[in-house]
Amino acid sequence: MARRRRGLPVNGVLLLDKPRGLSSNHALQRVRHLFQAQKAGHTGTLDPMATGLLPVCFGEATKFSAHLLEADKVYRTRVELGAITDTGDAEGEVVERRAVPRLTEADVEGVLSRFRGEIDQVPPMYSALKHQGRKLYELAREGKSIERAARRVTVYDARLLALADTAFELEVRVSKGTYIRTLAEDIGQVLGCGAHISALRRLATGPFTSEGMLTLESLEAMPGEAERETALLPVDVLVDHLSWLEVDAAVASRLTHGQQARVEAGDLVEGETTRLYRDGIFLGLGTVTGPQEVAPKRLLSTAAD
C-alpha cells in the first residue's frame, strides 16, 4: 500500500525576505508549515546573520530549482574595518585588531578595482562546504582548519555606497559561489587593517529582485493557505531564460509518456533545452535532439493529467 504524503500539493515559488537570526533551513520550515506544503526547498543558502531574498520552491518547482543555484546574485553589505573575526562576520570572535588608516573614497575605490572581474577566492572554514562528508563549519567549531583550494569566481561590480571612519557599505554583483565575507576580508587585507562584515542583505538572485518579497510576518497575517498561495509565482519563472515551444496534444502525449516527438518548428537548436507548453500550460523541459525533434528532459508530474 502506497504511503500517503502529508501536506498539500502546493506548487510555485515564494520570494521570502529572510529575517536576521534564522538559518535558511529554519526559515524554510517556517514557510512550509504556513503553507502546509508536501514538499519545499530553498535555493542558495543565506547565513543566519544575512537577510533578504531567499526564493522558496514548492512542489513541482523544486524540480527546476537548480537553475537558480547557478545564478548571479546581488548583495549589499557593511564592512567593518580594524577587526578580524574567526567567521569573517560580526557573529564570530575577534582574533586580531589593527589600526585603521584615514581612508578616502579614492583609496577604497582603488582597492575595489583590484577585486572586480575574475578573482581567486579561498572558501571560508565557516561554510557549508564538505570535507570527507562533514561540513566545514562543524570542523571549524572543533578548532580544526582544513586546507581549501581557491575557487575562481567573478565580481561583476563592486560599488561603494558610503564611507565612514572605520566602515563602508558596498553593493556587489557576483557569480555563484562567491563568499561576501571572504571578499570583505580580502579587501581589508589589502587595505592593511583587516575587516569583517556586520550586515549582509541579498537583493537579487537570477531573475528575481527584492521587489515582491514577503516577510514571515506578512505571510502569518494572511488568513489561510489559499490566500498565501496567491503570493506564489508560477513554476516556469525558474526557467524563463530558456527558449519556449508550444506543442499540440499528440506531441504532448508522446513527451509525457517518455517518447521523443517530431515538432513543427524551424528555429530549434540541437542540444538546447527548451520550455514546453500545451495551450499555454507549462509541461516542463525538453531537449532538442534534431532539427525538428524534441525529447522529454524534466516534466511536471501533472503534465500527464
Structure description:
The structure is a single chain. The chain is an alpha+beta fold. It folds into 3 domains: 12-70 and 208-236, Pseudouridine synthase, CATH 3.30.2350.10; 73-205, Pseudouridine synthase, CATH 3.30.2350; 242-304, PUA domain (Archaeosine Trna-guanine Transglycosylase, Chain: A, domain 4, Roll), CATH 2.30.130.10. It is built from 8 helices and 18 strands. The strands form 4 sheets. Strands 1, 2, 3, 4, 7, 10, 11, 12 and 13 form a 9-stranded mixed β-sheet that branches. It has a 5-stranded mixed β-sheet with strand order 14-16-17-18-15, with helices on one face. It has a two-stranded antiparallel ribbon with strand order 5-6. A hairpin with a 2-residue loop joins strand 8 and strand 9. The model has no long low-confidence stretch (mean pLDDT 90).
Low-confidence stretches: none
Question: What pattern of helices and strands is seen along the backbone?
Answer: EHEEHEEEHEEEHEEHEEHHEHEEEE
Mean pLDDT: 90
Fourth CATH level, the homologous superfamily of the largest domain: Pseudouridine synthase
The major pleated sheet works out as: 9 strands, mixed
Number of domains: 3
Using DSSP, what is the number of strands?
18
Tell me which CATH architecture of the largest domain applies here: 2-Layer Sandwich
Protein structure class: alpha+beta
The coarse silhouette is: elongated
| Cα end-to-end separation | 22 Å
Count of helical stretches: 8
> Can you give the helix content as a percent range?
10-25%
CATH class of the largest domain: Alpha Beta
CATH topology of the largest domain: Pseudouridine synthase
Radius of gyration: 23 Å
Give the strand content: 25-35%
Domain tRNA pseudouridylate synthase B C-terminal: 181-239
Pfam families: TruB-C_2, TruB_C_2, TruB_N
EC number: 5.4.99.25
GO molecular function, one term: tRNA pseudouridine(55) synthase activity
